[in-house]
User: Which sequence fits this backbone?
């Protein structure tokens, strides 16, 4: 009885690993980039991912762009007085040995003035520009959360 359970767990872990994406730039690793689907006429989308700095010096995300949007901005959602507020940020620094998570309810990238809807099952290119590591192009998987 235990063997089928172990086989199922191993298969689940391998399947999850097969779907995970990683991209590298210098000592930075960008993992699991994704976005949510949008509907026709929706002017904005989002981008989420993790950035891990495996180096000994900090690096800073200073810009981002995508052919899917007119511009890309860094935003952070915070809760103040029981209300969610979103504020633009100029850059995002990743300290050595740490991971910054761009995720729902926190830091995220806004894809502004989308040129077309983001459709589930597709991928959207996103270029992240770092002060030290330079540019890295990642593919946002458009999936429901």
Assistant:
């Amino acid at each position: 009885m235990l063997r089928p359970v172990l086989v199922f767990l191993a298969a689940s872990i391998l399947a999850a690993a097969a779907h995970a994406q990683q991209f590298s730039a210098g000592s930075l690793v960008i993992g699991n980039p994704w976005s949510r689907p949008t509907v026709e006429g929706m002017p904005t989308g989002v981008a989420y991912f993790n950035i891990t700095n495996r180096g000994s010096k900090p690096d800073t995300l200073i810009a981002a762009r995508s052919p899917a949007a007119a511009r890309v901005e860094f935003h952070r959602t915070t809760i103040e007085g029981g209300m969610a507020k979103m504020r633009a940020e100029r850059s995002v620094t990743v300290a050595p040995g740490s991971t910054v998570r761009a995720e729902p309810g926190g830091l995220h990238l806004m894809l502004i003035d989308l040129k077309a809807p983001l459709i589930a099952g597709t991928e959207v290119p996103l270029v992240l520009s770092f002060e030290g590591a330079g540019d890295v192009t990642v593919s946002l998987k458009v999936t429901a959360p």
About this structure: Residues 2-19 form the longest helix (18 residues). Residues 22-142 form a domain with the Immunoglobulin-like fold (CATH 2.60.40.1890). The helical segments are 2-19.
